[in-house]
Amino acid sequence: MHSMASSLCNNIFLLLFLLNVLSSIGPYPVAVHSAGDAPINVTKHFSFYNFSFSNNPRLVHDVKLLGSAKFSDEKGSLQIPDESQYADIRHQAGRGIYSFPIRLLDPTTKTPASFQTTFSFQLNNSTASEQAAYGGSGLTFIIVPDEFTVGRPGPWLGMLNDACENDYKAVAVEFDTRKNPEFGDPNDNHVGINLGTIVSTKVINVSDVGVSLKDGFVHRAWITYDGPQRRMDIRLGRANEEDYPSTPIFSESLDLSPYLNEYMFVGFSASTGNHTQIHNILSWNFTSVSQAFLRFPSSETCQGKILLENSTAAPTTEKSSKNEPPKSFLIFMASVALALALFLGFYFISRHRRNASKIKTSVETEIHLPRPPNKPRRFTFSQLSSSTRSFSEIELLGSDSRGEYYRGKLSNGSQVAVKRFSTQFLHTHGSDKKRLLKEIKVIGHVRHPNLLPVRGWCQDNHEIMVVYDFVPNGSLDKWLFGAGVLPWTRRFKVIKDVADGLSFLHTKQLAHKNLKCSSVFLDVNFRAVLGDFGFVLLGAESKQFESAVCHGADVFEFGVLVLEVIAGRVRDEKEEGNPEERNLLDYAWNLHQIDEKVKLVDRRMGSLINLEQAIRVLEIGLLCTLNENKGRPSMEQVVEFFLNMDKPIPELPRTRPVSLFPYNSANTGLCNTYSCTF
Q1: 476-674 belongs to which CATH class?
Q2: Whole-angstrom Cα distance, residue 266 to residue 274?
Q3: Which residues pair with 286 in a beta bridge?
Q4: In this structure, which topology does domain 43-292 adopt according to CATH?
Q5: DSSP-based three-state secondary structure for 674
Q6: pTM for the complete prediction?
Q7: What is its EC number (predicted)?
Q8: How many of the other CB atoms lie within 10 Å of CB of 152?
Q9: Whether pLDDT at 21 is above 70
C-alpha cells in the first residue's frame, strides 16, 4: 500500500508541475482566438445562369447529381426526377448538390454564416389527366452534411433517409405541393422551414399571398439569412417580374447553429410519391459570408478549410497573456485541491476494498468467469411482440419468401431487428425445427466485425424468430437500387467487407446460404455486415458434403453481388428493355467476351471512380461464377486478391463455361440441389 501511495504521489506532483507549466505560458495551446482578435470575413460565391452544358462546361464538376436527377439541355435546367432514366417516375428522389463544401459555422463562437441565395424554379404536374389536380411531393433548398446520400421519396422530399433518423444536421426550405396531415401540412401549397426533421418548424400558406406553386409558371425565391443576428427572410415571386418583392412571406428570428456543422453542402432535393411532378431549377445564385478566427484547422477535416495568417494579432495575444497571473494561480490551486481529494478518496476506497476482499472473493470470481460477449438468449413471444408493438406494420422493415423483418425495441432500450419466419415457409421446407434452432445458436456465438450479431431466438406459440442487432443504415439494396448513389470508394469497401465476413464463416465450417444485397447491411460507418442468414431446415446426409456445396454457392453468390455493386442494378430485371441485358451475369460475360466490361460500371458514380480498380474487381466477380472444377476460387483466395491489388489474378476464359448445375443469378439453387435451403 505504501508503494502504491508513493507512486501515486509522484504522479500527482508530476501532473501539478505540468499544469503549472501550462498555466504559466498563457492560453496559446488551447485558445483558438482571443478577445482582441478581429474576425476576417470569408466570402464564397457561385452563380449558374442556367444548367446548360453549352454555357457551363464545368457543370458536371461543380454540381453533383444524386439519385433520379439530370441536367436538361432542352430547358437548361437541373431536373428532378429524370424521366428518361425510369419508365415509372413514381416514388423517385434526387438531389443536385454544389460539389464543394461551404463554411457555414464558426465552431468556436457557434456563429452561423450569413448567406443569400436566389433561384428560379418550375413545378410541372404529371400530364396524365387523372393526376393533373394533384401535386407531387415538392422541392427543397437543402443544407446537408454530406454529398452522397439521397433521402426517401414521397413526402420525405428526398431530404431524410433511413440513415438520418437521429441527430441528423440538416436545414431545408421546402416548396411543397402535397398536403400530408401527418406532418402538419396546412394545404397543398405551402413553404416550410425544416430543421433536422421533415416536420416543418415554420409553415407559410402561400395561397394567402396569391401564389400557386403548381400553376406551371416559373417562380423565383429569395432566401436571406443573417448569421450574427440569427434571422431568416424568405421572399417569393414570379421570375418574369423584375421587381424584388417588397414584402417577405417570412421574416423571423431563427437559430440555425444547432443544425449546422462547420462545413456543409448546399443544393436542392425533390421527390415524387403516388402522384408525379417534374421539378426544374432554372437558375441559381449563392453567396455566403462567414466570420473566421481560426489559426489552425478545426477538428473537422474538410478540403478547403481556412488557415488564418494574421501576424498583427500575435502581439495583442502576448500582451493579454501577461496580464493573467491571477487566473493561472487559481487554476494551480484548484488542481492541488483536486489532486488532494483524489488521493484521499483513493486511500479510503483501497482500505475499504482490502477489508471487504474476503467477503467479495466468491462474487468477484463469478463476475469474471469467461463468458461469450453478447451471449445470445431465448426470447418469449410476448417479449418480441411487445418490442415490435404487436408486429405492427409501422415497424415492418421488409419481407421475403421466408418471412418478415420488424424493428423492435427491447426493455433495456436497445434496438433490434426481428426476423419472423412465416408459417408457410416452416411447413413447406420441413419440420426439423431442432436443427434450425441449433444452427441459429451456432451462428449466434460467432463474432466478426463483418457479421451481424445474433441477439437471440424465439421458439414459442408455434413461432420461430431470430433477433439481430438493428443496423440504422439499412440494407445495401436500398442504397444501390434506391434513390441514393454510393461512391466507388464506399462500394469497394463494401465488397471487401463482405469477402472478409464470408471467408471467416467458411473457416468456421459455416456458410451464409442467403447472400444477396438485401442481406448485406451498412452500419453507421458504412461498414458492411452480413445478416439474414439462410438457416438450413432440411439435413444433408453428409455434413462435410453439405458444407462444401454451400461454400461453393456462397462464392458464386458473392460473384453476382460484386456485379450488382459495380453495375448498380439488380441481377435479373423483369421490366422491358434489351433482353440481352436483363440477366446481369449473362450480360457481364458477354461484355467480357467482346472486351467492353467498362460498360457495366454504374455511370451514376460520375468521373470519381478508379476504372482500373473497378475492372479488376469485376473480373474477380466473374471468377467467382465459374464452375468449381473450372477455376472458381475459395473465399480465402478472394480475400488474398483484395489484399494485394497489384498481384495478377487467374486469367478468365473468353466465354463462360456451361454450368454443371441449373444455377444462375435468377435461380439461387446450387445449394437447393443438396437441400441447403436459401
Answers
A1: mainly alpha
A2: 27
A3: 46, 117
A4: Jelly Rolls (2.60.120)
A5: helix
A6: 0.50
A7: 2.7.11.1
A8: 23
A9: no
